[in-house]
Amino acid sequence: MKLNYKIIVYFFGLLLLFNGGFMLLAALLSFCYKDGVTFNLFLAGISVLLFGVLAMFCTKNHTKEMNKREGYLVVAFGWIVMTLSGTLPFLFTGAIPEFTNALFETISGYTTTGSTILNDIESLPKGILFWRSLTHWIGGMGIIVLAIAILPLLGIGGMQLFAAEAPGPSADKLHPRITDTAKRLWLIYFGYTAAETLFLSLAGMSFFDALNHSMSTLSTGGFSTKNASLSHWNDSPMIQYIVIVFMFLAGTNFVLSYFAFKGNVRKVVRDEEFKLYFKFIAIFTLIVSGMLFFNSSLDTISAFHHPMVWGIGEGSFRHALFQVVAIVTTTGFVSADYTLWTPFLLVFFFGLMFLGGSAGSTSGGVKIVRHFVLIKNGFLEFKRSLHPSAILPVRYNNKTVSGEIVFNVLGFFILYMLSFIVGSLGFALLGLDFQSAIGVAASSLGNVGPALGEFGPSHNFFEMPAAGKWWAAFLMLIGRLELFTVLILLTPFFWRNR
Q: How many CA atoms lie within 13 A of 53 on its CB side?
């Protein structure tokens, strides 16, 4: 069976049109603020648009059939095409002149990781800062549509468990449903972004900062317009609480948001993944805030300033809640340097990097639903040992989870841990110390952003060797696209014509 290359290239052309359009939006904002890079951004946008139009024109006679193999190629290489074209604004404006650094920053944006190589973010033109945040926003939405509408068709992703699972593998049956789902989700995503922008503006942020941070929050990205990230506003608790609420919403399944807006709050409250997600954050916050309150003063153990605006109790709780939500949802905003908190909390936050938010959200990581299935299946194994003849299926939301999905989750987890080990070995080979190597591998694979050691919350990735940046970019990509989607392309049987 030969690959339908024409439809693949046609899709790439479509993605380039989207990307070019967003670059022109960044050029428009640059023009409004007169930051001196309007023409360069316009040139980058036009170049990408022309490439997109050319790709679509050359493949307009494509047959409209797409099988699974083509689906995998479109998803995996789609992200690479977006990244390569997304480097142009950085290169054309000279904001990041080296290609490796520009590629690292861009893929960190699209995969909503939020790791940066920039030393002085505040000196950059506003058009470039806006483009950085846009890469997050585009990537975040792409992920939701991918997780809910496309990945279940390819037989991967935690969304097979969800009621909104797209029906059947045939394209004609699916098309209207996917389009419909994607539109609703876009609307919720856009609505949340607009709401957060409004709230942050009212809380004292400038409109520009509010817009950029809203795009970073809802995509669980973590790029900020300030060198100190969200710790810049440590004297404004309201700003941080608003960001916490929207990080929590971004880490929640967007389909649940849709049900909540329809008035079906019962479905949200009864959802097992949501309940577990909420409990995890509540318990972890209590642990961290207790440790902070009784063990130390935040200011003595941090690279950032922590004015206790509403007292030490509230300060400990707020920073604990902020960092727990930022790491669990893989947003990666920084209000404090958690690596300087007690050794217990350092290992604790390292563990949180493997958690991830809900399936169907913009967060990265393993995802809560997979942990849920793994834990439930683990406990059932005890029962099966005692009662070998009993049929004891894993249940999720009062529905039986098929053995196939349980195996898929087990396979994913094993592959995830192997990727983490190989990723850490790669960084160690390039000369990173133990803490930095495991931290960067966990952070890149889970799309978290800040890591440990030399690449912790108060540092950036500028000093990383060039080969390390390419390796981190690869880990970000496979982590973002649920491993199978990219790794299957490295297998010989995928490319055999059958």
A: 8
The DSSP output letter for 464 is S
Q: pTM of the prediction? A: 0.89
| Whether the Cβ atoms of residue 95 and residue 128 lie closer than 8 Å to each other | yes
Pick from 108, 80, 101, 102: nearest CA to 332:
108
Question: 274-308 pLDDT, tens per residue?
Answer: 999 999 999 999 999 888 888 755 555 555 666 66
Task: Report pLDDT for 147.
Answer: 59
Q: Half-sphere exposure (CA, 13 Å, Cβ side) for 65?
A: 6
Q: How many CB atoms lie within 10 A of CB 395?
A: 13
In Å, how far are 359, 377, 472 from 409, measured between CA atoms?
Answer: 12, 10, 24
Handedness of CA 328, 334, 336, 341 (dihedral sign): positive
Longest dimension (CA), the chain: 73
Of 220, 243, 219, 249, whose CA–CA distance to 230 is shortest? 243
Asked whether the beta carbons of 247 and 140 are under 8 A apart, the reply is no
- Helix ranges (H only) for 297-433 are 312-328, 343-352, 368-386, 403-429
Chain position carrying tokens 């935040």: 298
CA distance 129 to 119: 13
Helix (H, G, I), strand (E, B) or coil at 400: strand
Tokens 């509010």, residue located: 210
pLDDT band at 332 (very low <50, low <70, confident <90, very high): confident
Are 409 and 370 in contact by the 8 Å Cβ rule? The answer is: yes
Cα 283 from Cα 258, distance rounded (Å): 27
For 312, other C-beta atoms within 10 Å of its C-beta total 13
pLDDT in tens, 420-471: 999 999 999 998 999 999 999 999 999 998 888 888 888 888 889 999 999 9
